[in-house]
Design brief:
- By secondary structure, the protein is α+β, with helices and mostly antiparallel strands.
- The protein contains 21 helices and 37 strands.
- The radius of gyration is 28 Å and the shape is globular.
């Protein structure tokens, strides 16, 4: 027995006798597991805005970070017999790190062990994301637990320190942070927030939060809290083992005076074991905006306050520790049985990452709505071809959340806002689901097929079809669309849009065929035998045609009209849903044909990534699709041959990010798409075992619905600029002075040009003269327009914006919001200072900073009267 294992067992005996701690199983299992080095370790995992990771082998090797890689420091120190050591973080620089001996990641917890032969410390981060208890899962609280034990049979005087940076509640260091303290029952709670609460701004991909409030809380009887400059807190604890006696005055700009919410725990003399814990929480105030409505986080749907949330979390601490341990052990055992130990570890690492890439809100009927965010992509919200690969985790563990994930899209598609015969692609840019009827990034066959398959999979997960009734007309319409256009798709994008679009996509055709079969299956479940036969027969005839035109020797083609192989990952639903549409030989042939293409770190997506003549040749692996492909295998050895290289990649990559779903098979330094909800797709292997699927899905007690309808899209009457009188913009392609957006700035030497007028509800783009040599080269531009507002404004008016992703718009130098992304004009979210600039009869300077160049991008501004209530 190793010395480390002996110490674990010794601590375990003490804890059984002294604390009866529910986390003991984590310690016992940890001692025997083979080492696995995660590329990044989830510490706090609740939403796209409350998602903090360690991207180092040891917790003391670097600063903890948001998934965007921005620093969001969490720090912990231990003081043993008067000497301080670091447990987490790099500060203070002169304090040595306490020796870390291991790290382990389970679905709900990350467990670090430290040992110096005298004292052993276990630090556990637990986000109790229990799928059978939506109220607990929705609660944005992570527990930090310290278990400290003497292993040399001597008593040691011990103090603990923990802090969370106030920078967690602002998007950048120029923001001013304010703070306070509260008494929540038996807790002391420290609170910090942006002094300027800019709700839902900024939106987009690599952004963090500027609104809501960060909380750190601990039992008042066990800890003392303080809010102050980070350096002062650390210095005080290192020297005295305690914190300053009073909080600092709030209101410092974060970069000027970094502040932290800190607690110190005095454990006194420890000769056996002792335990302390801390709660980290975040109240986002509102979760998302959906069709113009601000939706509350799901945990607030009945009016709960942050104080009540923290008190409930504290009350549940012991019980949730036990429940998380039981859930982790049971899930890991079944994952191992289904796909092996490596597969189980991949899923454990992906579990919290998937959930933290979603926001869980409540609609007007207090029903759950789960909104995906396209992290490290374009920041879209509720993207159907992200919901589709994410779905297996919820189909397995929470049919309620599977329904909640499609509900925002289905409610939108059933409203008067969506007027197309195919399914939508997305609802806007996170956290604003504008649901404006825009189809600028259409994937008509892809998204229609996705939703039909997912709805049928949900029926299989919970055995009921009632939830389909409000949307049956849409599902029928999409089946008709695929009947016409799905078998041989035209030139269009699919979910693998990063590879570009093309016509006659064989894998996309598989999806359409199986979607028709899924629709027929739903018809049968609803008692429509004729519909079931019609669409089942249609799908089988289409599949027979597919096998003839796609066959190319030992594989099936990437496209019907060109050679080249591709992963046919969509075939997996034929197996999982028991549709029996394609002959089994198709999957067998495909699996055999993939083996020569396997590389050290995975199976490339398709032949395009292998072409040495292609200047973008990278041999790209899409890890979620590879797992779906591996699930087609009929024996464990073939599954493992495809899946294990991904485990090896995670264990060795130098890209220290959350789990990647796109990376280069030949380069350990590449992982461009990570921290995305699609890693929930790794759980698909469990769906291939009907007994396991039934076991886990059957534990979900929920039956949500009905969801509230979406309010009609308002009608806007543009009154400024007046029809036929377009704005004249001044613009430059060269970086101007810092005050370029202010009213007094001299833009007379800038170029100028008009935009098209707002006569119709379409996107009038600036009609600016751009020399050909600048097109596709210029990366940004600055624009200004000075206008005289009408003497009267309607009582209900909106500032309408549209343009390219990432634009910034200012009124008299006051920023309003990022210009909404897309071809359709949308109402801006006006902050109070910006709203105050719009005065009847006043002169208004509109300024915009646009990105990616005038050859590609635009921004436009107008005022419109609205008939919205």
């Amino acid at each position: 027995m190793t010395t480390f294992s002996f110490r674990i067992q010794r601590l375990q005996k003490h804890l059984v006798c002294v604390l009866a701690l529910p986390f003991l199983g984590c310690l016992a299992a940890h001692a025997s597991d083979a080492p696995f080095r995660p590329p990044a370790v989830p510490l706090v995992a609740h939403s796209p805005y409350f998602s903090i990771w360690s991207e180092n082998d040891k917790l003391t090797d670097g600063t903890t970070r948001h998934w965007t890689t921005a620093e969001q420091p969490l720090e912990s120190l231990i003081r043993i017999d008067g000497k301080a050591y670091r447990l987490m973080g790099v500060e203070p620089g002169g304090v040595p790190a306490f020796p870390q001996v291991s790290v382990r990641v389970t679905p709900t917890s990350s467990i670090y062990d430290f040992d110096d032969t005298h004292v052993h410390v276990t630090l556990i981060f637990t986000s109790p994301l229990l799928p059978e208890d939506l109220d607990v899962l929705a609660r944005p609280v992570t527990y930090l637990t310290w278990i400290v034990g003497s292993v040399d049979q001597q008593a040691h005087n011990i103090q603990l320190y923990a802090s969370a940076s106030a920078g967690i509640c602002v998007d950048d260091g120029r923001k001013t942070v304010t703070w306070s303290r509260e008494t929540d029952g038996l807790l002391t709670a420290l609170k910090a927030g942006n002094a300027d609460q800019t709700l839902f701004d900024p939106r987009g991909d690599g952004t963090r939060i500027n609104w809501g409030y960060l909380y750190a809380a601990a039992p008042a009887s066990e800890a003392r809290g303080c809010i102050a400059a980070n350096g002062a807190l650390l210095d005080s604890f290192v020297k005295t083992g305690a914190l300053p006696t009073s909080d600092a005055a709030p209101g410092a700009t974060f970069n000027e005076k970094p502040a932290a919410l800190a607690f110190a725990f005095d454990l006194g003399s420890v000769n056996t074991t002792a335990l302390r814990h801390l709660l980290l929480g975040y109240d986002e105030t509102y979760e998302v905006q959906y069709g113009g409505q601000n939706l509350l986080p799901y945990w607030k749907r009945e009016g709960a306050t942050a104080s009540e949330m923290l008190q409930a979390a504290e009350k549940d601490y012991d019980d949730l520790g036990s429940r998380c341990h039981k859930f982790d052990n049971a899930l890991m055992a079944d994952l191992t049985m289904a796909g092996g130990a490596k597969y189980a570890q991949i899923c454990a690492l992906a579990y919290r990452e998937c959930l933290a890439a979603n926001g869980l809100a409540a609609d007007a009927n207090k029903q759950p709505m789960l909104f995906t965010k396209e992290n490290t992509s374009n920041g879209d919200i509720a993207t159907v071809d992200v919901i589709y690969p994410q779905a297996p985790i919820f189909l397995l563990l929470s049919p309620t959340l599977a329904k909640a994930s499609i509900a925002p899209v289905m409610v939108y598609a059933a409203s008067n806002r969506w007027k197309f015969p195919n399914a939508p692609h997305d609802l806007g840019t996170y956290p604003v689901a504008t649901a404006s009827g825009d189809a600028s990034e259409a994937m008509p066959v892809e998204e229609s097929g996705n939703l039909l398959i997912l709805c049928d999979a949900i029926v299989h997960a919970d055995g009921g079809t009632d939830f389909l009734t409000p949307w049956w007309a849409q599902l029928t319409q999409w089946a008709s669309f695929l009947e016409k256009y799905g078998l041989d798709p035209g030139d269009q994008l699919c979910t693998d849009d990063f590879m570009g679009g093309f016509a006659h996509n064989a894998n996309l055709s598989v999806k359409a065929i199986l979607a028709l079969a899924a629709y027929g299956d739903m018809c049968g479940q609803r008692g429509d035998a004729a519909g079931a036969k019609k669409y089942g027969d249609m799908a089988r005839v289409d599949a027979q045609h597919w096998t003839k035109v796609a066959r190319d020797g030992d594989h099936y083609r990437l496209a019907f009209d060109k050679p080249g192989w591709s992963q046919k990952y969509n075939l997996v639903w034929d197996k999982i849903l028991g549709l029996d549409i394609f002959p089994p030989e198709v999957a067998r042939t495909e699996i055999a044909s993939y083996m020569p293409h396997l590389q050290k770190y995975g199976l490339p997506l398709d032949a395009r990534t292998e072409d040495p003549k292609n200047p973008d040749h990278h041999a790209m692996v899409k890890s979620d699709w590879s797992t779906w492909t591996a699930t087609l295998a009929e024996n464990p050895a073939d599954f493992d041959r495809i899946e294990s290289p991904f485990y090896d990649y995670l264990n060795a990559t130098t890209a220290r990010n959350p789990v990647a779903d796109l990376y280069r098979a030949e380069s350990l330094a590449e992982g461009p798409m990570h921290a995305r909800p699609v890693v929930g797709g790794f759980f698909i292997k469990m769906l291939a075992d009907p007994a396991l699927w039934k076991k886990w899905a059957g534990a979900d007690p929920g039956n949500p619905g009905p969801w509230a309808p979406m309010p009609p899209l308002p009608t806007y009457t543009y009154f400024f600029p007046a029809p036929g009188q377009p704005l004249t913009w001044r613009y430059t392609r060269f970086t101007p002075a810092a005050n370029w957006a202010s009213p007094g700035f001299d833009d007379s030497k800038w170029e100028q040009g008009p935009n098209r007028s707002w006569e119709k509800e379409k996107a009038p783009k600036p009609d600016l003269t751009v020399p050909p040599e600048y097109k596709n080269v210029v990366k940004e531009a600055w624009m200004r327009a000075t206008v005289k507002l009408p003497a009267t404004l309607p009582a209900n008016f909106e500032l309408m914006l549209n343009g390219h992703y990432g634009n910034e718009v200012f009124l008299n130098g006051v920023r309003v919001a990022d210009a909404p992304y897309g071809d359709s004009p949308m109402p801006a979210i006006l902050h109070p200072d910006a709203q105050a600039q719009i005065k009847p009869g006043s002169t208004l300077v509109i300024a915009a900073h646009i990105h990616d160049g005038l050859g590609h991008s635009w921004v436009n501004v107008g005022l419109a009267g609205s008939d919205a209530p």
